[in-house]
């Protein structure tokens, strides 16, 4: 186990809420401060710790994938550029919901629950009420709290936070942070679909060992790892060919293979497989093998995703919501009106939003032919004139080529019967 891994294990074993410093970590584990600093940054990326201004770094509860939309109070402090006045021991806790304290105290009791965050101004009684009910308090406007309120926050182990922003701004910032997390939750990552505990070969393996795994698993591609479990190569049927069984794997393997991490989006891994012409990618954490992902895995994920409702809206979905889609003999036709979401800084429909509409129209054309798993390869577009807002446009997409591994479409955008833009898009099909 490396020093870096030992430090991460030490951090993971700490009690939630414990404070961590570079200097103390270096002294306790007899490592350099640089090594300790890098490990703390890695732990922060893994969701093990959170660094808060004027408080320091604390151990937090590691969020599971299904709870990605939940913010901890420590994260709230950072996003509202706040300061912690009390209740530091509860910073690691996730908040259930936030409320704005613009109501009478007797009404507030009906809404505030344990684990909430009450956003309120300089209202002492409201602050005390929330803390006594097991909720955290965020004081807006840069106000501070009385000493007895701070003591109550420490006693209840619920954060008491102050932010320089007004109540509306704070609520907007927190809502945006939750929205961004919902978007990230929609992204399928490698860790969601990868094969864990995958078969592999090591530096002592031979071609004969590869053939034994082939017969046992019916798979033909295996990562090669060293004595530390780090991926150093990959072996496929093309590497082995008609070689003798006793030949060492390390002599014929493909060295330094492409790898991805568990947090890599599946779409990115699929693009790599298509562009590089490979069928399987090892998944690593700190260079150590933790699983593999294949083209088949990616295809299944894409097909599943195409039938899932989206939790949050993206720019693409907002733009495409302005259009209706109808099938044609050779592709699809989109009809709709340009809206405010498509506005450019110059007061006309932005070219980037029109590009988005045209690209998505091409995707719809391939979907209409049951080719769901496509990856853009090239996109050439020519514009002839601008389009004003609130104007009706039509996008016609004709499939001019569709093979087993690739396809091509012609896209024409019309405004009032005039050709505004013409494009050619070629795609690659993510085939088995």
UniProtKB/TrEMBL annotation:
One Pfam family here: CBS
CDD domains assigned: CBS_pair_DRTGG_assoc (cd04596), hot_dog (cd03440)
Origin superkingdom: Bacteria
UniProt-listed SUPFAM superfamilies: CBS-domain pair, HprK N-terminal domain-like, Thioesterase/thiol ester dehydrase-isomerase, Winged helix' DNA-binding domain
Keyword terms: CBS domain
Entry-linked InterPro entries: CBS_dom, CBS_dom_sf, Diverse_CBS-Domain, DRTGG, HotDog_dom_sf, Ser_kin/Pase_Hpr-like_N_sf, WH-like_DNA-bd_sf, WH_DNA-bd_sf
CBS domain sequence ranges: 194-252, 253-313
Sequence intervals crossing the membrane: none
PANTHER family: CBS DOMAIN-CONTAINING PROTEIN, CBS DOMAIN-CONTAINING PROTEIN CBSX3, MITOCHONDRIAL
Name by which UniProt lists this protein: Signal transduction protein with CBS and DRTGG domains
């Amino acid at each position: 186990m490396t020093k870096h891994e030992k430090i991460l294990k030490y951090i993971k074993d700490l009690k939630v809420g414990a404070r961590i410093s570079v200097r103390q970590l270096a002294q306790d584990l007899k490592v350099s401060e640089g090594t300790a600093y890098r490990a703390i940054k890695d732990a922060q990326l893994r969701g093990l710790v959170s660094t808060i201004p004027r408080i320091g770094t604390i151990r937090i509860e590691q969020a599971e994938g299904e709870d990605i939309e939940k913010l901890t109070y420590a994260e709230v402090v950072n996003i509202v550029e706040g300061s912690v006045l009390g209740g530091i021991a509860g910073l690691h806790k996730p908040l259930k919901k936030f409320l704005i304290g613009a109501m009478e105290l007797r009404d507030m009791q009906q809404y505030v629950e344990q684990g909430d965050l009450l956003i309120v101004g300089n209202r002492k009684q409201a602050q005390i009420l929330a803390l006594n009910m097991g909720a955290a308090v965020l004081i807006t406007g840069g106000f501070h709290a009385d000493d007895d309120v701070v003591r109550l926050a420490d006693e209840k182990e619920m954060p008491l936070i102050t932010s320089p922003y007004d109540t509306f701004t704070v609520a907007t910032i927190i809502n945006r942070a939750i929205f961004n997390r919902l978007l990230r939750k929609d992204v399928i990552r490698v860790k969601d679909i990868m094969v864990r505990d995958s078969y592999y070969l090591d530096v002592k393996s031979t071609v004969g060992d590869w053939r034994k795994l082939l017969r046992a698993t019916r798979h033909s591609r295996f990562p090669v790892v060293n004595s530390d479990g780090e991926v150093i190569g990959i072996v496929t049927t093309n590497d082995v060919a008609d070689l003798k069984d006793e030949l060492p794997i390390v002599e014929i393997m493909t060295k330094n293979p492409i790898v991805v991490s568990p947090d890599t989006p599946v779409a990115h891994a699929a693009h790599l497989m298509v562009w590089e012409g490979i069928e399987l990618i090892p998944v690593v954490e700190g260079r150590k093998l933790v699983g593999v992902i294949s083209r088949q895995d990616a295809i299944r994920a894409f097909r599943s995703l195409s039938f899932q409702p989206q939790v949050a809206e993206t720019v693409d979905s907002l733009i495409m919501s302005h259009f209706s889609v109808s099938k044609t003999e050779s592709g699809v036709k989109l009809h709709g009106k340009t809206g405010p979401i498509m506005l450019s800084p110059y007061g006309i429909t932005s070219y980037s939003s029109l590009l988005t509409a045209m690209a998505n129209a091409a995707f719809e054309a391939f979907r209409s032919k049951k080719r769901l798993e496509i990856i853009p390869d090239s996109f050439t577009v020519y514009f002839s004139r601008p389009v004003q807002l609130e104007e009706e446009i039509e996008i016609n997409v004709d499939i001019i080529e569709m093979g087993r591994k690739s396809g091509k479409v012609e896209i024409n955008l019309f405004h009032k019967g005039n050709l505004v833009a013409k494009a050619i898009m070629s795609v690659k099909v993510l085939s088995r």
